[in-house]
Amino acid sequence: MDEVIAEATPLRRTMRTFDLTLLGIGAIIGTGIFVLTGKGALTAGPALSVSFLLAAVCCGFAGLCYAEFASMVPVSGSAYTYAYIAFGEIVAFMIGWDLVLEYALQAATVSAGWSGYFVNLLDGLGLHIPVQLTAAYGTTPGVTTYFNLPGFLIVLAITWVLSIGINQTKRTNDVMVLIKLAVIILFIVCVVRFVQPDNWKPFSPYGWYSFRSGSTTPMGIIPAASIVFFSFIGFDAVSSSAEETINPNKTLPRGILISLGISTVLYIIMTLIMTGVVRYPEFAKFINAPVAGVILKTGMGWLAFIVNIGALLGMTTVMLVQLYGQSRICYAMSRDGMIPRFFGTVHPRYRTPFQGTWFFGLLTAIAGGLVNINVLFELVNIGTLSAFIIVSAGIIWMRWKHPEAHRGFRAPGVPFTPLVSIVFCLVLIAGLNWETWVRFVVWFALGMVVYFSYAASHSKLRLADKNRADDTHRDHHEIDGSQSASH
Q1: Which of 4, 189, 326, 367 has the fewest CB atoms within 10 Å distance of its CB?
Q2: How far is CA 186 from CA 36, 183, 192, 307, in A?
Q3: What pLDDT, on a 0 to 100 scale, did the predictor assign at position 90?
Q4: What is the pTM of this model?
Q5: pLDDT surpasses 60 at 223
Q6: CA dihedral 340, 342, 343, 347 (to 10 degrees)
C-alpha cells in the first residue's frame, strides 16, 4: 500500500472541495430527473420518492466507505485502486474491467437521451436535423433512423475538453452544474403550486415488490430503486480525481458526501412535485421526457424552453464526469500493467492521459451513435453495485488487516456501516431482471480471459515479485559460488 501512495503523479493538482462537490452533483443530477423519473413513477407510483431515498441510502453507506478509502489511498483509480490495495490484482482487475464498461455504457446511454432533448430544442427554434441522423438504428418505432449524430458529436466535444486539461474540465463542469441547479430550483419554485395531494393516493400502489398479472417485470419500491439507482452512479467517480486534488485526505470525503446529500434532497423534492402534479399512470404518455410532461400539465410553455436547457446541461455533466472517471481508472490500470501502457501515457503539455481519453471517447461516441443501448442501462447498475460491495468489504478487511494505516476520514460504525452497504446493494441487485445477470456474467467471463491472457503476465506487481525472486536466486548463487571457491 505504501508503494502505491508514495508513487509520484504527473497529473496536476487543482481540485478543491467546491470543485469536487460540483463534480459529484454533475455526475448525479441529470438522467435521473430528466429521463428516469417517468419509468420510475410507472414502476412505484408516488412512492418513487421512497425509491430514490432507498437508492440514496445505499449510496450513502457505500459513500462513507469510499470516503475512508479515498482519505487512506489518495490516488487515481477509485474502486479499482481500493480493491487492488485490499484484495490484490485479480479482484482489482475485474472491478476495473467492470467499471470501464459501466462508465462508457452510461455515457453512451445518456448521449441518446441528450440527443432527444437537443433535437426537440432545435425543432422549437425552427431548425431540423434529418430524422435518419437523430437516433441509432431501430431505436424509434415506426421511424427509420441510422445514426445518432448529436449524441456522437457531444461525446467527442466532451472528450476534447477532458483531453486538454483538468482546469478546463473543472471550469466547464462548474459552470454547467451551477446553471443546472438554478434551472432545477426555478422548476421547483414555479411548479410546486400546481401540486394536488390527491394525486399521491394511493401512495404505494405496488407495495415494496410485486408482479402485475401476466407480467414478469417486477413492480414496486424496490424495483424502482433498482432502476433509479442509475441516477446516483457517478458520485464514486469523484474519488478517481484523487491525484488531481489538493489535500485529498480531507477534500475527497467532503466532496463525495456533500454532493450525495444535496442530490438526494433535490431528487426527493422533484419526484414528490412531479407525481403531485401528474398522476403516475399518465407518465406513460411522456415516459422519455417526464419533466416536459409535467410542465405541459401546468401550461407554462415558457418554462419548457429553460428546463430543456437545464436537461441538456444536466446530461452533459453526467457524460463529462463518467468519461473523466473512466479515463482515470484506465490510467491507474495501465500504470499497474493491467492494460497496455498506451492508455496511461500522460501528455507532456496537457498533463492528462491523452491517448486513453481519446481512445475510449471515440468508442463511446461510436457506441452512442450506432447501437441501441437503452435496454442495457441496468447492466450499468449491476456493475456499479458489485463495485460498491467490493469497496465496502474492503473497508472491513483493511480495518482488520491494517488498523495502523493513516485515515484522514474514518467511516463511522464499522463493521456495521459497510455490512449495511453490502445488504442494500444485494437488495437492489435482486430487483434487476435475469437478462441483466446473464449479460454481466458474460462480460465477467470475457474479463477473465483478458486477465489471464494479458494482465497476469504484464502486471507490475508480478514483474516486481519476479525480479525480486531473480535477485534472490542470483544472490544465493553468488554466495554458493564464493563458498565453493573458498573450499
Answers
A1: 189
A2: 20, 5, 10, 9
A3: 87
A4: 0.77
A5: yes
A6: 150
What's the angle, vertex CA 233, arms to CA 370 and CA 281, rounded to 5?
A: 80
Mean pLDDT of the chain: 81
Q: Could you identify the residue written with the cell 419554485? A: 189
pLDDT at residue 476 tops 60: no
Task: Tell the CATH topology of 2-436.
Answer: Amino acid/polyamine transporter I (1.20.1740)
Average pLDDT over residues 381-401: 87
The confidence score (pLDDT) of residue 2 equals: 47
Encode pLDDT of 395-452 as tens digits.
999 898 888 887 877 888 889 999 999 998 888 888 777 777 888 888 889 989 989 9
Closest alpha carbon to 59 in 307, 234, 314: 234
Find cell 426537440 and name the residue: 120
pLDDT digits (tens, 9 = 90+) for 286-320: 776 788 888 888 888 788 888 888 888 888 888 88
- Domain positions in the chain are 2-436
Q: What is the pLDDT at residue 199?
A: 94
